[in-house]
């Protein structure tokens, strides 16, 4: 595979022909989600385990603030935020962008939900979920639904330029709230 094809295959939900190109395994459905402490676009610490017993969580990893697909996806979540955020559910965007970039991204696009910075140690949370691309230095376009018990109930991984099906995300999230 060419270098570009290899990188794109890593973002794909279709397996690469070369087994060495596959992403490292993340938490499997039915297993505990790795806990984390990250800062949001306002510098406030967000901890996954703080939602335990209270809310189901959609973790939405995205590669780059301000890129066309990521901007479109995050705006799509913003436009349907009332569907994502209920008394029993929460959505958290996660990227390896610095907190300051995420603040400008949120302000520019009117994103009024937590955008978490996995900047330092660079990509450590994305790595714990098996979605960090070491070659590109970014999180792959991936999503996880975590139930109120902290168990991974669903995950999906999209190709680099391929947007998410937000309707499917909502259906999966609300199955567990």
Summed up, the helix count is: 6
Work out the strand percent: 15-25%
Instruction: Give the low-pLDDT segments.
Output: 4-22
CA radius of gyration: 15 Å
Strand arrangement, major sheet: 2-1-5-4-3-8-9
Please identify which CATH superfamily we are dealing with: Glutaredoxin
CATH topology group = Glutaredoxin
Largest sheet: 7 strands, mixed
Distance from first to last alpha carbon: 42 Å
Question: What is the CATH C-level name?
Answer: Alpha Beta
Mean pLDDT: 86
Which helices and strands appear, and what pairs or packs with what?
Elements: H1 3-11, E1 37-40, E2 45-47, E3 56-61, H2 68-79, H3 81-84, E4 89-95, H4 99-109, E5 115-117, H5 124-128, E6 132-133, E7 138-139, E8 142-146, E9 152-157, H6 166-175
Parallel strand pairs: 3-4, 4-5
Antiparallel strand pairs: 1-2, 1-5, 3-8, 6-7, 8-9
Q: Could you describe the 3D structure shown?
A:
The chain is α+β, with helices and mostly antiparallel strands and 177 residues long. It has one domain (26-175): Glutaredoxin, CATH 3.40.30.10. Helices cover 29% and strands 21% of the residues. The protein contains 6 helices and 9 strands; from the N terminus they run αβββααβαβαββββα. The strands form 2 sheets. A 7-stranded mixed sheet has the order 2-1-5-4-3-8-9, with helices on one face. A two-stranded antiparallel sheet has the order 6-7. A hairpin with a 4-residue loop joins β1 (37-40) and β2. The N and C termini lie far apart (42 Å).
């Amino acid at each position: 595979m060419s270098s570009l094809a290899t990188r794109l295959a890593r973002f794909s939900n279709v397996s690469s022909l070369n087994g060495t190109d596959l992403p490292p395994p993340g938490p499997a459905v039915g297993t505990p989600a790795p806990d984390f402490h990250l800062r949001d676009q306002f510098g406030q610490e967000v901890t996954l385990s703080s939602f335990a017993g209270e809310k189901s969580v959609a973790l939405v990893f995205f590669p780059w603030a301000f890129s066309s697909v990521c901007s479109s996806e995050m705006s799509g979540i913003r436009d349907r935020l009332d569907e994502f955020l209920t008394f029993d559910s929460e959505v958290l965007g996660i990227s390896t962008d610095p907190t300051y970039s995420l603040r400008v991204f949120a302000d520019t696009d009117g994103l009024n939900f937590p955008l978490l910075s996995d900047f330092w140690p660079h990509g450590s949370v994305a790595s714990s979920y098996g979605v960090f691309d070491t070659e590109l230095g970014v999180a792959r376009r991936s999503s996880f639904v975590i139930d109120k018990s902290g168990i991974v109930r669903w995950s999906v991984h999209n190709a680099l330029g391929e947007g998410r099906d937000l309707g499917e995300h909502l259906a999966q999230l609300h199955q567990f709230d």
